[in-house]
Amino acid sequence: MARNSRSSLPHAACKCMTLRWKIGALHMSNESLVSARVADAIGGAIVRGDYPAGSVLPSELDLCEQFGVSRTGIREALKMLGSKKLISPRRRVGGIVNERSLWSLLDPDVLRWMRGAPTDMRLLKDLARLRLAIEPEAARQAALHQDRAAIDAIRIAGEAMAADPAQALMADIAFHVAVLRASGNRFFQALGPMVESALAMSIPVTNEVKQVPKADILLHMAIHDAIRDGHADEAAERAHELIAETVRLLELAEG
Question: HTH gntR-type domain spans which residues (predicted)?
Fold first, then answer.
């Protein structure tokens, strides 16, 4: 009996270590979640302009009290914002807000925070012109690459734009992201969050200028048809036509 008891000790110790590891992992997971939430709140405030460039964020202690989290959680949140170039961390203070030109503008979180900020027409035009440089070539490559499943996704999104006006915005976004995916180019595909944010911010503005509730479905489907049929130059031309019209409408909206 004594031998059996002794032989069971390593197993019991192993179970105890496993439990401690699980508790520790859960604690780390919770801390990471808290830090992400704090970074989300501060990042959104910076992008909205609540903290202008050059301003100093509240001290770590003040942020601890404001968010009700530990100093470790605050420091991790500030590290996240520093990695996105929104702030330059400073000891004993929360950090100094950087000029927008230094921000990681293509970071998915930064793009998401921009969507919650007041409309910035210069930003919308800059994003549209970036799309103008990228999406026509992505459409060309999609026509050459001929990924049938990806091309079907373009068609489905285009048809959804026409079928349900309430879902037209999301379907429009899905259409353009699907074109990037169909290109087969991993760098184009990685720009999906940028295109998604650009469209989410610009489509309501351009539709208001046109006085229509949704985008030009026929032109979207012409892009799909050219890609499906392998007409690379036509696909690029139709995509350029569509996005150039977006740039024109944004310029009209700005006055």
Answer: 32-100
* CATH architecture assigned to 119-253: Up-down Bundle (1.20)
**Domain 31-108 coded CATH 1.10.10.10:** yes
Alpha-helical segments (H) within the chain: 2-48, 60-67, 71-83, 108-115, 121-145, 148-163, 168-182, 186-190, 192-210, 217-228, 232-254
Cβ atoms of 134 and 191 within 8 Å: the answer is: yes
195-225 pLDDT tens trace: 999 999 998 899 888 876 667 899 999 999 9
Give backbone dihedrals phi and psi of 123, rounded to 5 degrees, phi first. Answer: -60, -45
Tokens 């030009």, residue? 216
Give residues with Cβ within 8 angstroms of 252, minimum separation 6.
Answer: 209
CATH topology of 31-108 equal to that of 119-253?
no
Q: How far is CA 223 from CA 145, 164, 186, 203, in A?
A: 15, 20, 20, 18
Strand partners, 88: 96
Does the model's pTM come out above 0.85? no
pLDDT digits (tens, 9 = 90+) for 40-72: 999 999 999 999 999 999 999 999 999 999 999
